[in-house]
Write a structure and sequence with these properties.
Blueprint lengths: L1 H43 L8 H19 L12 H19 L2 H6 L1 H27 L9 H10 L6 H6 L6 H25 L9 H36 L6 H21 L4 H19 L2 H29 L3 H7 L3 H32 L10 H10 L5 H11 L8 H32 L25 H6 L11 H6 L1 H21 L21
Helix pairs in contact: 1-2, 1-12, 2-12, 3-10, 3-11, 3-12, 3-16, 5-6, 5-8, 5-14, 6-8, 6-16, 8-9, 8-11, 9-10, 9-11, 10-11, 10-12, 13-17, 14-15, 14-17, 15-17, 16-17
């Protein structure tokens, strides 16, 4: 009798697993088909004035969610549950690593002070603006059991921008400085927002004094510095291993696999040590492109460059599709449906705070940045400032992932206040991406009409300091170095710090780093190595 009961339970378990496996296969098939549709439609809408691939994927995700909602009779709107773990562990690393790997290092670090000013300092200003306003407004609206720590988290959540739509419209050859600033600020902004969000997890707002604030700032700086160091160390380690072992002489697949795995390992180590994986994998990508990439065979260079870019593109499309489908999750909307007016009001307030928080630092910091520029071509014009402000108005998957991390458990919540914040975040993301994203192309064409024929305020000469941030790996490393006058005094260091720092860095890099870790022109000859003239590339 007991044996029959056990056998029956095993049979039911087997049926459940089979059903679950079948459902997973159906979900994966659906997502792959939708990704293909997004790519095809994105190509067809390439010249469309209003739409781009991001908005297309979002619309397809929403339409798919509606269809699923109707076929399941209102029980579900998606085939996968949005998980912050899935986002941060599997989806975000390829995007950030590719950003660092494909970045034109020379121009990124020449504009590094301006990028850091907007990406780090600007994000902090936006955080304080949104947080203080949220505390002042939402604490009087009786939104469930939310407290000050939740309002501070809201400031970090809505400080994370998504500039993908703007970058898809801006042309790096026509508006190189503007493109570099928007791109660089977006990466630093995401890292700062996540680091800020993580630092707030150990922050007690009920015991605020000078010591607590100093500890908070110290923890913030520690996360920044430690994460950067780990990324640089991981990149150098990969360069040293591949340079010494010449793995490509036996198998190019192994050296490509080693680059991918060590990049991902750096991200996971950062998460394991409670650091910022975004910063770590970004700087790991920069270091790998500077050293490791030159130590592999020619075929591996082509493979890695296109493999990383393709993977990043697929993941970005998947994320917008994912967000669109999850936006109609009926469970979260049920808990917020008893007060729709309040939910709409909170969403409107949050959207307004995003606008104000963005303006609170873009225009003042642009003014300060312009004070340090000597020529008009180097200054950020009013039209460019408006584009920069507009580029940071859209919110995306990072904001949703942080909101899920704060206000849900495993993607679910039954608390009224938490449900309102989740639905409000989804509303802001959808509204900002759809409305601001659709208006991005017309706005940029109106503000930068000369960009279609080459903006005279944006010199595109390869020798300009404002060259494109992203370019082909070969072009970024093979271009002729700029003639830099050696600084002769402290005044030179103060007046031209970027030139001076770059000069001394190149001396240090050529004398110590490249001979040890490899790089362009510093990989010694050895049979089977990338410099072996007998190696024939297919």
């Amino acid at each position: 009798m007991a044996f029959e009961v056990v056998a029956a339970q095993l049979a039911r378990l087997s049926d459940a697993l089979a059903t679950s496996d079948h459902a997973s296969v159906v979900s994966i098939n659906l997502f792959v088909a939708l990704l293909c549709a997004c790519i095809v439609l994105g190509h067809l809408l390439e010249e469309n004035r209003w739409l781009n691939e991001s908005i297309t994927a979002l619309i397809i995700g929403l339409c798919t969610g509606v269809v699923i909602l109707m076929t399941t009779k209102g029980k579900s709107s998606h085939v996968l549950v949005f998980s912050e773990d899935l986002f941060f562990i599997y989806l975000l690393p390829p995007i950030i690593f590719n950003a660092g790997f494909q970045v034109k290092k020379k121009q990124f670090f020449r504009n590094f002070m301006t990028i850091t000013l907007f990406g780090a300092v600007g994000t902090m200003i936006s955080f304080f603006t949104i947080s203080l306003a949220a505390i002042a407004i939402f604490s009087k609206m009786n939104i469930g059991t939310l407290d000050v720590s939740d309002f501070l988290a809201i400031g970090a959540i809505f400080s994370a921008t998504d500039s993908v739509c703007t970058l898809q419209v801006l042309n790096q050859d026509e508006t190189p400085f503007l493109y570099s600033l928007v791109f660089g600020e977006g990466v630093v902004n995401d890292a700062t927002s996540v680091v800020l969000f993580n630092a707030l997890q150990n922050f007690d707002p009920n015991q605020i004094d000078a010591i607590v604030i100093l500890k908070f700032l110290g923890n913030f700086c520690y996360l920044f510095v430690s994460s950067t160091f780990l990324g640089v160390f991981s990149g150098l380690l990969s360069a040293y291993i591949i340079k010494k072992l010449y793995i490509g002489r036996h198998s190019t697949d192994r050296e490509v696999a080693l680059m991918m795995l060590m990049a991902y390992l750096s991200y996971m180590l950062a998460e394991l040590l409670d650091l910022s994986g975004i910063l770590t994998v970004f700087f790991c990508g920069i270091v790998m492109s500077h050293y490791t990439w030159h130590n592999v065979t020619e075929s591996s260079r082509v493979t890695t460059k296109h493999a990383f870019a393709t993977l990043s593109f697929i993941v970005e499309t998947f994320l917008f599709l994912y967000v669109g489908m999850d936006a109609l999750d009926i469970e979260k909307w049920k808990f917020a449906s008893d007060s729709p007016g309040k939910s709409i009001g909170i969403s409107s307030i949050l959207l307004g705070l995003v606008l104000v928080g963005r303006a609170a630092f873009v225009f003042p910091l642009s003014f300060l940045s312009n004070l340090t520029k000597k020529t008009e071509l180097e200054k950020i014009s009013w039209r460019q400032q408006i584009v920069i402000w507009w580029a940071g108005l859209m919110r995306g998957a990072v904001s949703i992932a942080l909101a899920y991390n704060k206000f849900t458990r495993s993607g679910h919540t039954q608390l009224h206040g938490n449900a309102i914040m989740i639905t409000s975040t989804i509303t802001v993301v959808l509204f900002s991406t759809m409305l601001f994203g659709i208006l991005t192309k017309p706005l940029i064409r109106f503000l930068l009409p000369a960009s279609s024929n080459g903006d005279p305020s944006e010199p595109s000469s390869p020798k300009s300091l404002h060259s494109p941030l992203l370019t082909s790996m070969l072009g970024s490393d093979m271009e002729a170095p700029l003639p830099i006058v050696r600084p002769s005094s402290l005044r030179m260091l103060i007046t031209k710090p970027t030139h001076t720092i770059h000069y001394y860095w190149r001396k240090f890099d050529d004398a110590l780093m490249r001979p040890m870790f490899g790089g362009r022109g510093f990989v010694p000859y050895s049979p089977g190595s990338p410099t072996d003239p007998n190696v024939i590339v297919a």
